[in-house]
């Protein structure tokens, strides 16, 4: 007959052999959880390794690994020729969640707070989960193009650098980091800037950059102007800052600057948000004439321009239009960008370029949000910039993305003829598709889902004047593109016949 501890362990421990977590870790975590919840108490003896292996039908060496793991954390003592005895470490506050909980359901953590707090509608997640095989996004890079093998070597080399610990232990630094210097050099060489590190702040992402800028720049009820169709993530950030968002028309030359002059007075506007290179979501660029008009109006009306240049690196045809910020002599432009979009997300970074006094204030907010930073990421990116590897990766991937853009245009022309209108953009990872005649995009998404194709609501744009989809092709190979366009056409036919 099994001992009481053995019977208890059979109820408490559930091992999932298909899990990516090693069996000995699963078992050790669940035994620790049982000790913390006082199902196993100090002085109890765990079964012998042979008995334990028979109880759960696992290798005896795995049981030895379980007990060694528990002993290394101080939860048990292994006494030669006697057995394994439960200890209770002095520090009892750190809990480890078990992978399975069966008889202790009464001890589940509370689902709701015992106190009121204000929820934010503006921050509600726009992510939608789907188990469909095919999916269209708003234009994300293909993570499969990331050079994983090379990066594993570079990351390991960065971890082993002797200077890493001393850098992390520095409480403050009066000088600029190697990464900031290299990033300045890179942006000066590739985007026409003439900046120094004190004009620059690097962040985890372009969204983090915009959030910090909005904290510095905006007060409740400040007026922020955005395009009639705009970036929903940016709008959420502005709304959370308490700003009043006003929309302005967009035409083939970008935002209508004259509209601003006619409908707003001096000092009424706090900032104008633009994606000057390729407007999100329509992919239309802001013409040179409109750029000059907007900068002149910003100087005259004394508002800030937030220039979001999120996809500058993806230029396929001709030369990329340089940022407005390089011509800003009046200090009215705050420039946001990304570095490393051809890399895995862990190695991507955002940055802000602005006058020195604003950067100093923004860095104060950054220290609250992210005082530690990521020195390993910065070390790697510094070397990739210095060695020219970033530039080579971009060049290699641009060829692939251009081929995907052209193939998507061919497929759309073959399957939709005149029913979808689009202009082939000179760059970026998305097409702006307009349906003529207009259809119900909600119905289209419903029918595509039946065909194993998911269209998230964030890429659908429909009102009395608009019936369009932002079709991201960056992470789709040619086989996927062909299948998706055929499914889209089949769903389109179903909408017409419904």
UniProtKB/TrEMBL annotation:
This is GntR family transcriptional regulator/MocR family aminotransferase. It comes from the Bacteria. It comes from Mariniflexile fucanivorans. CDD domains: AAT_like, WHTH_GntR. Residues 21-89 form the HTH gntR-type domain. The keyword Mitochondrion does not apply. PROSITE patterns: HTH_GNTR. InterPro entries: HTH_trans_reg/aminotransferase, PyrdxlP-dep_Trfase, PyrdxlP-dep_Trfase_major, Tscrpt_reg_HTH_GntR, WH-like_DNA-bd_sf, WH_DNA-bd_sf. Keywords: Aminotransferase, DNA-binding, Pyridoxal phosphate, Transcription, Transcription regulation, Transferase. The keyword Transferase applies. Pfam families: GntR. In the C-terminal section; belongs to the class-I pyridoxal-phosphate-dependent aminotransferase family. SUPFAM superfamilies: PLP-dependent transferases (SSF53383), Winged helix' DNA-binding domain (SSF46785). One of its GO terms (molecular function) is DNA-binding transcription factor activity.
